[in-house]
Amino acid sequence: MLFSFFKKWKKNRNFSNLKDKEFAFLFDEDTSGEFVVFDTETTGLDPKQDEILSIGAVKIKDNKILTSKTFEIYLRNSKNICSKSIAIHHIRQCDLVDAIDPKVAIKEFLHFIGARTLIGYYLEFDVEMINKYIKPMIGVTLPNEMIEVSEIYFEKTITLIPQGNIDLRFDTILKNCDLPNMGVHNAVNDAIMTAMIYLKLTKEKK
Amino acid sequence: MSILDQRKLIESIHPFELLSSSVLDDLMKKMDIAYYPKDTLLFSKNLPSIAFYIIIKGSVAEYIDGEIHNFFGQGDSFDADALIYGNTEGKFVVDEDLICYEIKKDDFIALLENKDVQSYFLQDFVTRHQQLKDYNTASDLTPFLISKVNEIYLHNACIVDADTSIYDALKKQKELKSSVILVRFKDTYAIVTDTNLKERVLLNGLDVKTPIIEIATRNVISIDINDFLFNALLLMTHNSIKRVVVMKEGEVKGILEQLDLLSYFANHSHLAAVQIDKAKSVDDLKNLQKDLKNIILSLDAKGVKVRYITKLISSLNTKIYKKVFEMCVDGDLRDKCALIVMGSEGREEQSIMTDQDNALIVKDGIDVELFFEPMMKLNRFLLDIGFPPCKGNVMVSNEFYRRDESNYRKLIDEWIVTLDEINLQNLSVFLDAKCVSGDKALLEGLKNYLFESFSARDDVLAHIAKAVLNFETPLSLFSGFVLEKNHHNKLDLKKGGIFALVHGIRTLSLEYKIDVTNTIERIKSLNNRGIFDKTFATELIECFDTLSSIRLKAMLEAKTLDEINYINPKHLQKIDMDLLKDSFRVVNKFKKFMIFHFHLNMVG
């Protein structure tokens, strides 16, 4: 009760900072019945310094991952990509020729997610990266509800091995959920795999 | 990038690889991934199908009347019929948590405008089966292209020193029967061909005492023994030469002739036949086993239908029998008996040597004892050559299988009265008999007697036919393999399908007095008599061919004789797996036919 009150108050305070009324829809009550799973590829792991290279997202409705409507966008960058991160996401400088202006890209992303609940793996980081762009643009941070899949996984698993150390690495979760690894790590693929984990964890019959 | 990965997955599923890139792009935009937990009912008679499913992970079972009818695993797709015709007999239930692509009904129907896709989904069993097989052959060519030089017959090289006279060199060449002379020259070799001799010696009148090096061509084209045969062929074509020198670590190992290479690429059955004809002793025949196996391998790799391979092998085996027969039986006795082979050999369906089944029919009035010595010898020779002995002792060395005509007739009379398991087995084996040497008429006479004896004896025939139902078709068991829930990881092809087909067809042939022995020929004859309609006959032939071909692969891989009938479905390629499933379904259909035809449900 107190918690939900606090949440509401926080949301309201966030809303009062909104500079661009075009994005008021982010604060609407969600009626679509859909969720958005998203993932970002970045130049590094420090939200203060690093930038987003690409965003991939996919919607979930009921038991379906709507791969027919995936969202994938590459962002133009201010500096060169560090070679260490290239090894992870396989995005090279030359892959970014089609990249668009970060402001335009982020706006497109906001329209894609709307007021839907967001799902992700280590979502906190991705959200913080997005916030880094939208805060100066429209004055607010992402107000959407958020679901962390590693948290669901943790809670499901801890009941089985109460004292155990639970391995929360992405590939481990994927493996333990008996889900196919789609191969290459990129934003959309990771989003789809995360979506599968979410469906598996929430829709599975006990 | 990610769209590409998913595309790859779709493209790897037949028949989607037939789609053009733009159609595929379009399709990718219409597919969603869905998750269904175990036991979800996807669609059934009362629950119309709304999408076409392609399994990414998990499995689905199709039940008809409560029995497993089909089983779909990773990479499988279903169910076109339910979408096209708007209904289904089956009940599709998730067997293991399912993640799948879904193409919505309307999008799928639109996809069918593509001719190739349409023909794939709308065909009946036979055509689809055929198409799958063609697809399989196309991808199966590789083993043939990766044969190496050391796998082929190499001719002896005649190597002489540079200062040898032309005359001496030619003498040595004749001794070694080689087609060219290699001349050792400094650290390398030079070559003398017939052309060199003709132009330099005959036309230019060069003295034959001249050192051979004078007429040799310096630049020898060679290939390493571990190189691919395909490269040897390229080398010959490129340089327009008829032979290459084969080297191993700087030493000459032999000469590879274009003729051998081409016949290897065609098939070297011709060579084997010549070898059998030329054989003078049992020893000459011993080396053939390996050749026969190679022939099978290369023909199989080239996508030759198993029924043609087995025919070829049978005719080669018959040649061997004839040869051995001539070695053992004196001239004046040869037309007083008939050597017959039975079982799979008699049906011409034997590929790799399975055990020998043979017998001797002696003309009435001739002393059977005269054949004791020759037949013991014949049996010994066959064993020497590598025909494994028969476990049931169906061999000429056994007195039981060495009798005169009237004694065989007595045996047949006995079969009709008491048909216990052993008699039934003997009868079955005898029904497939084929004469390989001696007087054919002896066997024909006995076969006619057999047909007449069984004529109109429906009761006995039904009893014989019942064996068709002895073994369960492993269709439901088979899906268990896919599930990996079962501990048995192998499946008996012979018991599971081949036996039912062969034995059923054999019984029908007895009933309708069909004297050919080959299962496929028998099916064709039964079709001509109107027992099977054209479609069913074709289905049976395709099904038999598929089972035999998968069995052949198992045989080629088997290390011991006990393993040859077993396959591990998990090791099969996706396409073979589908073909196998289709075939088992035909076997089941055939069993139902037999039950109806012989009223087997009424036989105790």
In short:
The complex is a heterodimer of chains A (206) and B (604). Chain A is an alpha/beta fold. Chain A has helices at 2-16, 83-89, 102-113, 123-138, 149-158, 170-176, 187-203; strands spanning 34-42, 52-61, 64-74, 117-120, 146-148.
Structural description of this entry:
- The complex is a heterodimer of chains A (206) and B (604).
- By secondary structure, chain A is of the alpha/beta class.
- Chain A has one domain (32-201): 2-Layer Sandwich (Nucleotidyltransferase, domain 5).
- Helix content of chain A is 41%, strand content 18%.
- Chain A has helices spanning 2-16, 83-89, 102-113, 123-138, 149-158, 170-176, 187-203; strands spanning 34-42, 52-61, 64-74, 117-120, 146-148.
- The model of chain A has no long low-confidence stretch (mean pLDDT 86).
- With 604 residues, chain B is of the alpha+beta class.
- Chain B is 50% helix and 16% strand.
- Chain B contains 26 helices and 18 strands.
- The termini of chain B are far apart.
- Chain A binds chain B through residues 56, 63-68, 70, 72, 90, 178-180, 182-184, 186-189, 192, 195-196, 199-200, 203-205, and chain B through 1-3, 5-6, 29-39, 56-57, 97, 99, 101-102.
- Strand 3 (64-74) of chain A pairs antiparallel with strand 1 of chain B, so a sheet runs across the interface.
Shape of chain A: globular
N/C terminus separation of chain B: 65 Å
**Rg of chain A computed from alpha carbons, rounded to a whole number of angstroms:** 17 Å
Q: Which architecture of chain A per CATH?
A: 2-Layer Sandwich
Largest interface: A-B, 28 and 22 residues
Kindly report the oligomeric state of this protein: heterodimer
Task: Sketch the major β-sheet of chain B.
Answer: 6 strands, antiparallel
Low-confidence stretches of chain B: 138-144, 477-487
Provide the number of structural domains of chain B.
4
The CATH level-2 architecture of the largest domain in chain B is identified as 2-Layer Sandwich
CATH class of chain A: Alpha Beta
* Main CATH class of the largest domain in chain B: Alpha Beta
Number of helices of chain B: 26
Helix count, DSSP H or I runs of 4 or more residues of chain A: 7
How big a fraction of the residues of chain A is strand?
15-25%
* Shape summary of chain B: flat
- Say what the CATH topology of chain A is: Nucleotidyltransferase, domain 5
Alpha-carbon distance between the two ends of chain A: 30 Å
